[in-house]
């Protein structure tokens, strides 16, 4: 029988909220907080489709009073296997919905025929959480006794390659390219590919986030992994202008540093209890000219008003929350920090997270953590980490088929559950911890809020919200 499958993943912590998933001929699947960290499967079968093989897949988020908060629907075809919406369902076109007291993040993966280790089932993931714009201030209120404890006790939700959330500069990149982007050990010359295939390759390789910087912050992100480099291919005379510094991954430009900082300033001015850690790294920008420390420091300090001070150096991580707020230190650049990064190629270049959990997370120790200023827990899988894999996948996929999106939900329900339940059993030092993820969402933030509450010894607001 002709059919097409859909895997659904859902995380709920908004009190009283639930999500319904439906397909023709199937009972409605209702998901609430009691089913977090699990998935469900639905299949559109030919007898329940219209004469063209089409059926409507719908998901709806309901609030505590039974009111509709968010509702979306897409068309699935049991004969062709396609899935599409009335408008684009590509990552850039599925921004988080934040209104009143709730935040709904979601994403789709449009599956092909299941080659190269990828699933042949479509996917949808949805997270429904309270607003976390001011979660640091809510957890550690200004003037409270607990505010005297170290900032390093916060577990920071982080974005992997934070600035890779736009393709605005891709056309300029393609015009100016003379060298191949580096993907692992493989160089891929996109200029030799068709323009559509090149666009898909770049998207599948470089795009790790889909929300604006402002929305990432409102969702709850407090650590940004930003990799600055001058726009590749721009003439030498212009390249050294700080206006041409962009987040960069494999020579591919994302958001400009100027725009990133503008959005960061605006958020911090509106949310005065929040503090952000900004990690400036050069990994993944081999072949690009990098701004000097002097240039970066000038750019940062010029961007922020007097009400927002920048703390340069890892020592700021160990200052008390009260001291940082009193000195108006709202951004920390942990320069010189010794980091313990859990990313391992042999474990993260995979389609399932078992190796991350068994080979990395289960082997974490307090002794190893105590040797570092920052311990980085990395959730995201990288299933097509070679140039050949990127091209092959892109040739058979559409713009809504990012391989990073294919593995996200399947990985998150296991890695984030492990982090929430077991990380502090193995990481007992008072040094900083970050949890980095692709396509940042409310589930990642909630795990960090819960762990932060436990480290500070205050009530867990996620559990208070009724989440399990």
UniProtKB/TrEMBL annotation:
- Identify the domain of life: Eukaryota
Please list the coiled coil stretches: none
Give one GO molecular function term. Answer: phosphoric diester hydrolase activity
Q: Name one GO biological process term.
A: lipid metabolic process
Q: What name does UniProt use for this protein?
A: PLC-like phosphodiesterase
UniProt source species:
Calocera viscosa (strain TUFC12733)
State the organism's lineage: Eukaryota, Fungi, Dikarya, Basidiomycota, Agaricomycotina
């Amino acid at each position: 029988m002709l059919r097409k499958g859909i895997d659904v993943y859902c995380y709920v912590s908004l009190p009283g909220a639930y999500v319904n998933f439906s397909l023709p001929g199937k009972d409605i699947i209702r998901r609430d907080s009691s089913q977090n960290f699990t998935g469900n499967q639905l299949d559109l079968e030919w007898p329940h489709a219209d004469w063209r093989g089409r059926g409507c897949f719908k998901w709806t988020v309901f609030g505590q009073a039974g009111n509709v908060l968010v509702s979306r629907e897409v068309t699935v075809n049991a004969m062709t296997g396609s899935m599409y919406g009335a408008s684009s369902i590509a990552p850039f076109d599925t921004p988080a919905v934040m209104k009143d007291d709730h935040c709904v993040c979601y994403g789709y993966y449009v599956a092909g025929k299941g080659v190269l280790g990828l699933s042949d089932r479509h996917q949808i993931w949805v997270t429904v959480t309270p607003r976390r714009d001011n979660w640091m201030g809510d957890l550690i209120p200004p003037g409270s006794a607990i505010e005297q404890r170290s900032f390093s006790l916060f577990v920071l939700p982080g974005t992997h390659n934070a600035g890779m959330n736009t393709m605005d500069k891709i056309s300029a990149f393609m015009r100016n390219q003379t060298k191949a982007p580096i993907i692992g050990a493989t160089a891929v010359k996109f200029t030799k590919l068709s323009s559509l295939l090149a666009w898909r390759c770049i998207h599948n390789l470089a795009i790790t986030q889909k929300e604006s910087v402002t929305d990432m912050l409102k969702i709850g992100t407090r650590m940004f992994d930003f990799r600055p480099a001058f726009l590749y291919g721009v003439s030498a005379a212009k390249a050294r202008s700080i206006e041409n510094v962009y987040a960069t991954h494999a020579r591919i430009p994302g958001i400009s540093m100027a725009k990133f900082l503008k959005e960061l300033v605006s958020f911090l001015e509106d949310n005065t209890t929040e503090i952000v850690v900004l990690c400036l790294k050069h990994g993944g920008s081999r072949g690009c000219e990098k701004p000097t420390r002097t240039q970066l420091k000038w750019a940062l300090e010029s961007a922020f008003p007097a009400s927002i001070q920048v703390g340069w150096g890892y020592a700021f991580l160990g200052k008390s929350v009260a001291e940082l707020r009193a000195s108006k230190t709202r951004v920390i650049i942990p320069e010189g920090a010794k980091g313990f990064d859990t990313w391992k190629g042999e474990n993260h270049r995979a389609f399932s997270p078992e190796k991350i959990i068994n080979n990395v997370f289960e082997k974490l120790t307090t002794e190893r953590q105590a040797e570092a200023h920052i311990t980085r827990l990395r959730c995201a899988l990288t299933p097509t980490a070679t140039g050949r894999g990127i091209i092959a996948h892109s040739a058979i996929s559409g713009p809504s088929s990012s391989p990073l999106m294919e593995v996200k939900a399947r990985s998150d329900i296991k890695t984030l559950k492990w982090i929430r339940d077991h990380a502090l059993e193995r990481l007992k030092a008072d040094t900083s911890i970050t949890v980095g993820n692709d396509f940042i969402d409310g589930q990642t933030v909630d795990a960090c809020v819960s762990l932060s509450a436990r480290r500070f010894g205050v009530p867990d607001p996620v559990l208070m919200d009724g989440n399990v």
